Structure formats: structure tokens, C-alpha cells
Amino acid sequence: MKTIFVKAGLCMVLAAAGCSDGGAATPATPDRLTAPVHLTNCGVSVNVTAPPQRAIALEQNATEIMLSLGLADRMAGTSYQTDPVLPDLRPAYEKVPVLAKLYPSREAVRAANPDFVYSTYTSAYAPDAAGPRADLATLGVPAYLSEFACEKPADATRTVTFDGIFDEIRDIASVFGVPERADKLIHDQQSRLDAARGAAPMATPSAGPSLLWYYSGTSTPYVAGHGGVPDAISSLLGVRNTFTDASQKWPAGNWGEIAKRNPDVIVLADLSRGGDGDSAQSKIDYLRRNPVTSKLDAVVAGRIVTVPGSSMDPSIRSVQAAELVGANLHGTAR
What we know:
Elements: E1 2-5, H1 10-16, E2 37-41, E3 44-48, E4 55-57, H2 60-68, E5 75-79, H3 90-93, E6 98-100, H4 106-111, E7 116-119, H5 133-138, E8 143-145, H6 162-175, H7 179-199, E9 210-216, E10 222-223, H8 229-237, E11 240-241, H9 255-261, E12 265-270, H10 280-289, H11 297-300, E13 304-308, H12 318-326
Parallel strand pairs: 4-5, 4-7, 5-6, 7-8, 9-11, 9-12, 12-13
Antiparallel strand pairs: 1-2, 2-3, 9-10
């Protein structure tokens, strides 16, 4: 992704704020940064002429990135909350109008009169949801989409990395004229990743323990394949994603093959949507009673780690998954 932005008159703003070479400058607010921002996002030009004042986030991951950047007062709406909002973000979240339990309709989006729309999932821009980005553009509303989920697969960043997540945070911060907030958030996230790596046993992916990242389903389990957040965390911690050889990020697995690979640790996604094998407890119950899975080494030894389901998708929560898994790896290598 390529970001180009010009901060017109910024030196004059900082001078008025009393900055000097030897002291910290007063952080600029979005209102003081009026130059346009031009992004090339998923192969589409996104042009923002002024920092948005009425932005809409179309699902939780986008919402939490915006709230983490201190942008609640620039939000005209949020939607599609899948998990309880992070505790430190809840006070800000409660100030933002909720447009819909799931995705808002085109009509609901237009009624909110947004000047910027942001989503981390392609499905948010479906015709029966907010509508295509091109349609929003004709209304003069720039719309951003995570580059891990572009409309055209050829435009998407195929492999999730934490650097890629950080690039997305920088893009959003540039749109709102708050790059210094992105720097702080990314520094905090990187520090937590460094600590998670330091807490994990020293190993290389070829020699470290193997992890099965179990997302959903029971009769047909969906597991982490190549290129997603679980792969990024596995590499960070020096462990092996059991199904990193799968070409899909979330392939349908089968218990016979899982038993053959016999992972050292099972990482469960705790999903709140209520389907078959979504909650962590429903997965644990199934693993313990199924004749095949009950014999897996990880199940017998109780080497099971639970992480929020949303942390397995690219978001600011992904660091939490790295922390939880890293803290539970000691004594797991064969």
C-alpha cells in the first residue's frame, strides 16, 4: 500500500504550539491538518480532501483500530460487534452510535451522512450491506478496505504480517491527520510482541512444538493454514503451525489427518456467534468425548490454549493471541 500526504502549514502550527528542537511538540489535532491524503488501497485510489469528521467503521476490527487512535469523536457510527469491546476502549465505544447489529444497509450508511467509511472485510461492501466502494465514491465518500481482504484477490496482500497490520494503522492515522498516534500505538504493540517472543521457549520453527490452530466446527474442523495470523504468530514464537502446508488460510480439516500429525498444542478460537464448535468450551467438550481426538497428545496432557476468535484475524487483538500462546509454550516440545 502506498500513502502520500502533505501537511500544509504544519511548521506554522507547531510554532504556534510552542515547539522547539529540545522539547516535545503538542500533538496536532485532525482539525489543524487540512491537506489532502491520497492512498492506493487494494488497487483503488482513495482520496481524502480533509480529515474526516463523520467516519463509519463497518465492523469491530476497524472500530477498535479507530478507537485505539483516539478517533471516537470523529465517528458517526459503528457496527458488527462480534466480541465484547476491549475494556480500555469501552468508554470511547459507548459514545459512538451503533448503526446495526451486523452490517448496516446502504440506506443506514447514507442516513448517517459519512465522510469516510472503513472496513477490514470485503463483505462489508457487498450490495446487501454498505454497498460497493465505487458506489460510495460516486457520493463523494472515500472508503478504505484492509489490504488483507481486497475485492480482487490479485490486489490483496496474501500473507498476513504484523508489519502489514501496522501499515494499515498508519494509513488510517494519516487519513485523520494523527500520525503520531499511530507511532505510539505501533510502538506499544511491537513492545508486546517482543515480550511475547521473549517469554516463549527459544526454538526454531523446525525444532519447536507444533500447534494446531482450531477455529471452528466439530464434524468438519476449520483450522489455520498458510499465510494468516496464526502463521505470523507461529513464526514469531518459533513454533510450527501444523497445517502451514495448506494453501488456504482456513482450510477444512479432518480428524484423521489431525490425529496423524498429532500436534503438541491446540489453540482454540473462542467465537461468540453460537454455531457448531464456535465457543472454546464446545470445542473442548468435543475434543474430550470424540474417540479420535480424545487420544491426541495435546488433549491427554491438557495442552490447550484459548484465545479470542477475533484475535486470529488481522487486528490490534492479534498481539493478544501471541501473548497468550507464548506464555503457554514452556514444556510443550517433544
